[in-house]
């Protein structure tokens, strides 16, 4: 589409990625240079970057990268008379101009040539003379921009000890005398501000030297002092923008970033323009010299923050940023999934009823499970027995006390309390045999009673054994806490005491004596066996 144009590459400031430079035709057929920089991925908008007097595209490589990092396509260009664009005079060092209308026509043609490749919204960024011409174009009817961010725009000039009125008269006089192409008073024919010491552009020596390296790499980038013709253009352009009615038609947001220690342009004119613009705003960078975007990081970053604020206000299409927001919103959903495993352990206790079949089997062969659990119980059951029985007694006490007969039916239903019963039973070898056999959890009240009765019959045999002492402790603790159990316990020993004595005898005989074979008489009474679980539970 465009004839390729060169870009100057230096180690200090390499060409940004995605660069494509080309020539376009300006007013009067002038050959002008522009470059398009496209970031990877989908762009959120476009920035049209216009440098100040003397400044080529290369000087803004760092700033271009900043805008690309923010997702913007950047279109930069060389004004006529500078950079690699066509110069107005044979002497390339002379900064000359022939009025501002040719600049505005060049700018219009630039936008038309690249419009199809510039995603909306458009943000105008201009420095110094570039800021002046950008605002001038908008005041003259350019409506394609959603907003503008201007760095130290040239809306008025400083002339030192010479007043603007005197400067205007001197300019008119030199133009009348045909001296439009002559350097202004006191200027020399050399590159503008060639040394850092004493410069009035920036405090940053690195950025100053970086641009000088670009000029050394291609001397055609250099530009000297302005001529009277350029000064005439500047005076007329700033005079146009000084009239409030000229700016009222610029209805989009315009941010004017002013350099606190500017010695080239008039900051009071910037303040006046900010007041005259319907959505104008003035931001001052304290201590900054004229070239804010070439200043030290702390001052330069102020401009970038203003730009970021503008793009959020003037460019609604950055609403693409909220699109990632739904993804983070979905991210909170996994935390509930992570919490789901936590409830899973809660159902895990429900498998505890599975031991219920084991007690049923234990009823058939009580001697074996009792023998295996007894050794573990003698070591650790003593401290656990007092804590476990009171807990079970509290929950079970109201049930057996109210309906001892109904407990027979409830006993098989509530197998969940069986593990709780098994632990206290471990304190007594005699009571353990009954605990695993009769699993009913809701009838722990009868166990303390049985435990009391068991010592009466069984204490004589295992008197020498240590289990007698824990038996006393186990019996004492439940007796003191649940008042309703002793009542059930008194009734239970009458029918259950002889039967309880028979079973402990069977258990004690299982370990040291073969008398367990002699005591099958207990099964002879099936009816009694059914009542016994009720009393012992």
User: Would you list the SSEs in sequence order as H and E?
Assistant: EEEEHEHEHEHHHHEHEHHHHHHHHHHHHH
Rough outline:
globular
Strand content: 5-15%
Q: Assign the CATH architecture of the domain at 19-314.
A: 3-Layer(aba) Sandwich
Number of helices: 21
Low-confidence stretches: 317-322, 330-341, 343-537
Helix content: 40-55%
Structure, described:
The structure is a single chain. The chain is an alpha/beta fold. It has a domain at 19-314: Rossmann fold. It contains 21 helices and nine strands. It has helices at 61-69, 101-114, 129-139, 164-176, 205-217, 228-241, 244-247, 267-276, 297-314, 326-330, 334-339, 357-364, 367-396, 398-402, 407-413, 418-425, 429-437, 446-458, 468-480, 484-510, 526-536; strands at 3-4, 19-25, 31-37, 45-50, 72-77, 122-127, 145-151, 254-259, 280-285. The chain has a nine-stranded mixed beta sheet with strand order 1-2-3-5-4-6-7-8-9, with helices on both faces. Helix 1 (61-69) links the parallel strand 4 (45-50) and strand 5 (72-77). Helix 13 (367-396) packs across helix 17 and helix 20 packs across helix 21 (526-536). The longest helix is centred in the last third of the chain and has 30 residues, at 367-396. Residues 317-322, 330-341 and 343-537 have low confidence and may be disordered.
Summarize, please.
The protein is of the alpha/beta class.
Task: Itemize the secondary structure elements and their pairings.
Elements: E1 3-4, E2 19-25, E3 31-37, E4 45-50, H1 61-69, E5 72-77, H2 101-114, E6 122-127, H3 129-139, E7 145-151, H4 164-176, H5 205-217, H6 228-241, H7 244-247, E8 254-259, H8 267-276, E9 280-285, H9 297-314, H10 326-330, H11 334-339, H12 357-364, H13 367-396, H14 398-402, H15 407-413, H16 418-425, H17 429-437, H18 446-458, H19 468-480, H20 484-510, H21 526-536
Helix pairs in contact: 2-3, 3-6, 4-6, 13-16, 13-17, 13-19, 16-17, 17-18, 17-20, 18-19, 18-20, 20-21
